[in-house]
Amino acid sequence: MVYFSIPIFELSIEISVSGGKTINHDISRINYGVNLTRYNFRGRNETLQLILQFGFTQRYELSYRIPYIDRKQKQGIGFNFDYSEPKNLAYFTDNHILQYLKYNKPLKVTKGVSVSYFYRKSFFETHNFQSATRDSQINDTIAVLNNNYFGENGTRLQLQYAFANYSFNSEHRDVIQYPLRGYQLAGYVQKTGIGFWKAPLTYSKRVYLLPNTLY
């Protein structure tokens, strides 16, 4: 079994609507924690990951991936749970600058759960199905300061939605990190809530236009 422990230490930087950055060196804006990953969990190539983040943005996440659940090693499943309860929250923008509120209680609590199923049809093709749900609740102080945060003129304090997606990847490149030959075809379809659809498709291929010149 292989363990990886990556420390989290970062300064949260404000990004304006126009794309500029407002640097704030306040120590209270620091995020700290740890990202723990255990590969080959139970000796079955499973991956267990735990993220514990504290400070300016508190976030916790647990994921578990089982690559094979059948003898032919073509099917797998994955689970993910995340939870956040920041006591610092951007609730409004003023002159393209995010306005934050700091409170002694959580200003927003968000919970998310997802389940994934993946099927490897062949060595080159992988299909993935995912279903997830998210639930967010805000402190009534946020609704008073910004009655459009969740809409409905500040009377809505909770937002729930579900989404599902299907993705596929057809990988025919010789080396994924730096391919010299072959091609890749990938895409996904995602449905979020009631009326939002996404369906991008990408295709990439490495070709030689001139001798010893790769594009």
Sequence-ordered SSE layout with sheet pairings:
Elements: E1 2-11, E2 14-15, E3 21-22, E4 30-41, E5 46-55, E6 59-66, E7 75-84, E8 88-94, E9 97-102, E10 108-120, E11 125-138, H1 140-145, E12 158-171, E13 183-192, E14 196-198, E15 201-205, E16 208-210, E17 213-214
Antiparallel strand pairs: 1-4, 2-3, 4-5, 5-6, 6-7, 7-10, 8-9, 10-11, 11-12, 12-13, 13-14, 13-15, 16-17
Characterise this structure.
With 215 residues, the chain is mostly beta strands. Helices cover 3% and strands 61% of the residues. The protein is built from 1 helix and 17 strands. It has one helix spanning 140-145, and strands at 2-11, 14-15, 21-22, 30-41, 46-55, 59-66, 75-84, 88-94, 97-102, 108-120, 125-138, 158-171, 183-192, 196-198, 201-205, 208-210, 213-214. The strands form 4 sheets. Strands 1, 4, 5, 6, 7, 10, 11, 12, 13, 14 and 15 form an 11-stranded antiparallel β-sheet that branches. Strands 2-3 form a two-stranded antiparallel ribbon. The protein has a two-stranded antiparallel ribbon with strand order 8-9. A hairpin with a 4-residue loop joins strand 10 (108-120) and strand 11 (125-138). It is globular and about 55 Å long. The protein starts with a strand and ends with a strand. The relative contact order is 0.10.
